Amino acid sequence: MRTWDDVWEGLKNFFLQFADNYVEYILQFILLSLLFYSVFKILKTNKGGKFIALVIFFVLLSGVIFSLSSKFTSDMLFVIICMIALMVFTMFNTEIKRSLLDSQMKKNKTKMDSLTVSGVDLIIEETVRAVQNMSKKDIGALIVLSNENLPEGIIESGTVVNAAITSQMIEAVFYPKAPLHDGAMIIEGNKIYAAGCFLPLAQSENLPKEMGSRHRAALGVTSVASVTAIVVSEETGIISICKNGVVKKKYADAADIKAALTEYYWTDLTAEGKF
């Protein structure tokens, strides 16, 4: 069993070997760092689930180096594997949290009601109408399209509604004097599952000033869960669609809203076996 003393000793030996020919090692380190960063960046633009393959790749690479170099010790290999694992976790922490959250919530939630093609078309029509009506009246709104993968803490922060999806119901929830208008509405399948829910806020300091708390909440929840969020700005009436922690569409119109809802019902829910 390897102890922390062994790890520390291996770490010291790892750096002491660079005492000779340090210029050469520095250049190699810079080149390898650039290579690692490039690979990380390329994979990060794709689905985050590939981080496991990345770990395996670098472990195998370290093993090859170990087998070819007589000066490369097992302690050095252990240190490099730890460093690689730390780098991967740092780069893909959001994707890892999202994967763990999805798998956890699939075990804890009940299966949503079955959906029909005609029912989906009606839901999309009603939702688009409600969002456009609120946009015209500058009524702020935040709607999260969930496939049963939100943490219970978010649901418990609001009120379970479990109501049919109609334009009247959506607009009533976000009416400025309504008790639940400040929080997010959670749609699951053919139901408004909850309303008045509080979401984690995005912490980025680079967000445009016109993005208020609703936009930060939309970016925050879509960065940690595989959901889509539709935001209506209370100040401007502008409609935005967020997914994967970014604003996919700003100044969204009826066609954009319909496309987001269609993707949710025909792709996201279908892929999860909910439809």
Structural descriptors:
275 residues; alpha+beta; YojJ-like (1; 2 domains; seven-stranded mixed beta sheet; 10 helices; 14% strand
Structural overview:
- With 275 residues, this protein is of the alpha+beta class.
- It folds into 2 domains: 4-91, no CATH class; 111-271, DNA integrity scanning protein, DisA, N-terminal domain (YojJ-like (1), CATH 3.40.1700.
- The protein has helices at residues 4-16, 22-44, 51-68, 74-91, 93-108, 117-136, 152-156, 167-173, 213-224, 254-271; strands spanning 141-146, 159-164, 184-188, 191-197, 228-232, 239-243, 246-250.
- Strands 2-4-3-1-5-6-7 form a 7-stranded mixed beta sheet, sandwiched between helices.
- Strand 5 (228-232) and strand 6 form a beta hairpin.
- Helix 1 crosses helix 4 and helix 3 runs antiparallel to helix 4.
- It starts with a helix and ends with a helix.
- Mean pLDDT is 77; it is low at 45-49 and 104-112.
